[in-house]
Amino acid sequence: MATMTADQIQSIEERFPQVFQRPFHKRFGPLLLLGGIFLYLLYALWFFNLPQVMRESHWERLPLFLTQWISYDVQPIFRLDEPQITAKYPRFSVLGPDPNPDWVKTNADGSVTILIDGTAKSITFNKTQATIIANGETVAVALGTGKPLISGPVPGWITAHEDEVVADMGFAGEARVAVDRVRLRKRFLGWANFVFDTRSPFFGKSASEVASLIVSGPELKPGTSNLALAGDNIWNNAQWQHGDVWTKLLQTIVMAFLGTMLGGIVAFPLAFFAARNITPSRLVNQVLKRFFDFMRSIDMLIWALFFTRAFGPGPLAGSAAIFFTEIGTLGKVYSEGLENIDDKPREGIKSTGANGLLVQRYGVMPEVIPIFISQTLYQWESNTRGATIIGAVGAGGIGLKLWEAMRTNSNWANVFYMVLLILLVVFIFDNISNFLRRRLSRTIHDYNRIQAEQG
Amino acid sequence: MTLSVTAPSDATHQMADAWRRQTSLRRLYTAIGVGLLIVALGSTMWFADEANAGHFFDRLPHLLDFLSWLVPKDWNDVWRAMFDIASPHDTGTQEFNFPLGRAYVWGSFYVPEYFELMLTTLNVALVSTFIGFVFAVPFSFIAARNLTPHPVLRLIVKRFMELLRAFPEIVIAGLFAAIVSIGPIAAIIAIGLHSIGALGKLFYEINENIDMRAEEGLRAVGANWFERVRFAGLPQVLPNFMSYTLLRIEINVRVSTIMGAVGGGGIGEELKLSISRGFGAKTIALVLLLFTTIFIVDQFSAWLRRKLVGEQAFMMSA
């Protein structure tokens, strides 16, 4: 490539001033914007006091909580200061009132072996000595001297406190050994007692046993068929509360449906008066449009709080909140849809001498109805998601239940169960709404094509 | 019909009959559809009413009861509440303790409590939208069919964004509230993660519609993936990206208010407290402030979007 002379460079510069001599704001605009964003982020860092919040946060809890979503643990205590070493399970243990798990073994010499993860991670103890096995190492703890004493080197997975030795066995669980008791935690993958809780007569039975009981077994509760009893036990499962969860989920769906539909029904006629090409009065247009803005700008939260006070907590309050917000949102999108229509069909109908209502019915509606339905479906879909959140302030539905389950920080499996149900509902509704909208957009598309063909 | 006036042939009769049949069938379907909708509305209304703590017709006469506590005895209290000025009605109760929330900045100059809370809510919305934008842009280029570096990667990123979008924000907020303590940071993480999914979807749909000739040109001179995206993709889509991001800010201001009410800090928390205790002047001040802010944010964003992409910004604004 030949080098350019200064003259050539000069002439190129003169010919394309829009490239070489751009105005100041175009040249430095992006840079200034980036700088502004950077400064804002610094300010936000200070505003939210992020360094301190991060210092005080407990990130080690995150994996713990996440494992609790899909697992549960059993925490027996073995007292060593009683004549016989016996397991004590907490009340309402997931193992039921009379647990006798096969991972607790009483040996011939009176010692007890607990298999936390097979024999690879286990602990064997009697009143004077405990042997902990994990990660290929064996650690002996002497308990006879009033303090737990480890003989030999202390591996990294064991923490020796003054009065307690803690053996961390990772996901499988942990063992805490003191002179007077051994406290264990064994973790199981899955959800405990998802179908029948510990009070149910079906508890602890295999699927085939339950099936045969239902089909041909003797009545477990006199006067009730086993099928009805099983159904009742599942529905009222104390730990998972299937009945309550499903009812609340239905409430959330109903809130979104009712609010969106009623909002659409009210917004539909109003939109005709708000559209400036259909109602030629500027005053009416403006008043209605500001009304729509008002309904939208008063947030769904404010409506939810007001209606919760008016109707009491429940789905009625939530439906009303979504209804009021949707009047604004749908009114706005409907009237914008109306303002974008083609005027020719209307003129055609008008020229036949039809009255005002008929002009709207045959000149406007065929054009806008698919668009309206499509936008209503879109709102319905997004409200199904939104209804979960406003539920948490007391407006009914699954939101509040979810929030309460989270507050205790112990019910993460229940939270995950509800999350899965919500995801399922959102997925189904997304697909229904997408399918319907695709059908509709084909209608709109066909309509446009026919219009284009006819000129 | 003019057809029947001129000598009607068999063919025209058949046509008219067929048309009539078709119309009546369509009317039947419409009637069935409307009927089903009415049944669905009726039954859901009944269900919502049954499940609610107070029933519709019992509570309806009391619907306007809220005016009794909402309308303040002295309208000046609304301004006093908003700007933290001491009220002559102050008897030491929470309802009139306006000056208590002042945040002193310099000497006796203070930011009124509600403005500071509103600022928190706004900042939560802005920072979380920023997080959403920063992650959504690269994700959207990976997820776009025409620009993806690898189809498998595209599928993974797409599914991940779908999950982020559908995952209830309140659960993420609750989870992080237990980790970083309850407050605005948990809300930022929750809304930010959701924004990644929501913006990412809109962005990759834009990316799939770009003009590919610029990309082909860059490919011809041997540009790598990053350069192709940076110089062929980004300039085409940036105005639309900005427009959707502004839209997202509007949505996020609302969401962060709601998040506030469930413990995310900011104005939502105060509003919930104020309404549930029935503090008239405080509630009106808060609603006014929130309403004005949302209105200003909406109008400003609409103006900016119109400048960026023209009327196109309002085609699907919902």
From TrEMBL, chain A:
Main location: membrane
UniProt-listed Pfam families: BPD_transp_1 (PF00528)
SUPFAM superfamilies: MetI-like
Keyword vocabulary terms for this entry: Membrane, Transmembrane, Transmembrane helix, Transport
Domain ABC transmembrane type-1: 249-433
TM ranges: 28-48, 253-279, 300-324, 412-432
CDD domains per the UniProt record, alphabetical: TM_PBP2
Coiled coil: none
GO molecular-function term, one example from the UniProt record: ABC-type phosphonate transporter activity
Domain of life, per lineage: Bacteria
Gene Ontology CC, one term: plasma membrane
Record's subcellular location: Cell membrane
Membrane topology: Multi-pass membrane protein
Keyword Cell cycle: no
Family: Belongs to the binding-protein-dependent transport system permease family.
Protein name: Phosphonate transport system permease protein
From TrEMBL, chain B:
Keyword annotations of the record: Cell membrane, Membrane, Transmembrane, Transmembrane helix, Transport
Entry GO terms, CC: plasma membrane
GO molecular function: ABC-type phosphonate transporter activity
Domain ABC transmembrane type-1: 118-301
Top-level taxon: Bacteria
Transmembrane regions: 28-48, 124-145, 166-193, 279-297
Signal peptide segment: none
Membrane topology of this protein: Multi-pass membrane protein
Keyword NADP set for record: no
InterPro entries: MetI-like, MetI-like_sf, PhnE/PtxC
Classification via PANTHER family: ABC TRANSPORT SYSTEM PERMEASE PROTEIN P69, PHOSPHONATES TRANSPORT SYSTEM PERMEASE PROTEIN
Family, as annotated: Belongs to the binding-protein-dependent transport system permease family.
Protein name, UniProt field: Phosphonate transport system permease protein
Organism in which the protein naturally occurs: Rhizobium loti (Mesorhizobium loti)
